[in-house]
Amino acid sequence: MLYLIMDDAFSAGVYLEILQFPADLVLHPNSSFQMICSVTGTSEPYMYWHRWTATNGLKQMFGSVGSKSVDPSSVEGYNAIRPNGSHMIVESARVASAAPAVWYCSWSPQ
Questions:
Q1: All structural domains of the chain with their residue ranges
Q2: CATH class of the region 2-108
Q3: Are strands 14-21 and 33-40 parallel, antiparallel or unpaired?
Q4: Residues forming beta bridges with residue 81, ordered by sequence position
Q5: What's the pTM value of the predicted model, to 2 decimals?
Q6: Which strand ranges, in their side-by-side order, compose the sheet holding 7-11?
Q7: pLDDT of residue 10
Q8: Using one digit for the tens of pLDDT, what is the confidence trace for 57-81?
Q9: How far is CA 40 from CA 5, 20, 27, 110, in A?
Q10: Which residues pair with 33 in a beta bridge?
Q11: Residues near 53 by Cβ (< 8 Å), separated by ≥ 6?
């Protein structure tokens, strides 16, 4: 199962927003999935995907300092891309049957 958390941020009187789509996602074993993180109110922020599991706790899975740049681009059967400055996508062709997790994205200014 995958659950997503939505978060809003405020900084220096400017409204900044980070959204994840879909907001909730429950999958069957061996299903594929794609989640999109979108940031508005800032230009080319650093972006991150994190995953929480009961066995490993919270772990940063992917990081990006700008468009077309993700490090690492693939880990543990998951792939990430950053097609532009405000979106970062994580996906997997096949989710393991024993992999319940909470995924969320975050950002930071450059």
A1: 2-108
A2: mainly beta
A3: antiparallel
A4: 89
A5: 0.83
A6: 7-11, 14-21, 33-40, 87-92, 78-84, 74-75
A7: 45
A8: 999 999 999 999 999 999 989 999 9
A9: 17, 12, 28, 15
A10: 92
A11: 59, 99, 100, 101, 102
82 touches 66 (CB < 8 A): yes
Q: Is the peptide bond before 100 cis (omega within 30 degrees of 0)?
A: no
Query: pLDDT tens, 4-55?
Result: 344 444 445 567 888 999 988 888 888 899 999 999 888 899 999 999 999 8
Residue 89 region by backbone torsions, left for phi larger than 0, else alpha for psi between -120 and 50, else beta: beta
Residue 81: which residues within 8 A CB-CB, separation 6 or more?
70, 73, 88, 89
Token readout for 25 is 């996602």
Give residue for tokens 């929480």.
Answer: 52
